[in-house]
Amino acid sequence: MPTPGGLRPITRYGNRKLYDAEARRYVTLEELGLLVAGGHELAVTDQRTGEDLTSLTLAQVLLEGLKEKTARIPRQVLVGLIRLSAGPVSAWADWRGPQEAAARARDEVEKIVGGLL
For 16-63, what is each residue's pLDDT tens digit? Predict the structure, then answer.
């Protein structure tokens, strides 16, 4: 069942398994990547603490894709994301939600990639 705001609930258990409540089954990082690529917004929470693990899990999805050679992200884009994430928290504070965050991240990536051309 989708949560308010259209976020697909994913629960991470202590054994590191990921459970998709909407599909009612365990999923892999690769499957989460496919969901995101298909336009789904995810909300990953720790089953025990309720902590939001969405950003950490999405970073793991990217890392696994790079390790498996299914993701091709230019080095400069990764460097730009690291620099952006190391910036002041206030730079992120005014974002309204995942869609605006995605739009801003896309704009930043386009600026970085545009500088490479």
Answer: 999 999 999 999 999 999 999 899 999 999 999 999 999 899 989 988
Cα 74 to chain centroid distance, Å, stands at 17
Residue linked to tokens 């298909």? 38
Check whether residue 32 and residue 87 sit in a common domain. no
Q: What is the pTM of this model?
A: 0.66
Look at the chain and report how many structural domains it folds into. 2
Residue/partner pairs of 90-98 with CB below 8 Å, 24 or more apart: 97/5, 98/7, 98/41
Q: Tell me which H or E stretch contains 42.
A: strand 41-46
Residues 104, 61 share a domain: no
Residue 33 belongs to domain spanning = 4-67
Report how far apart, in Å, the C-alpha atoms of 55 and of each of 10, 51, 107, 111 are.
12, 11, 19, 22
Residues 6+ apart with CB under 8 A from 100: none
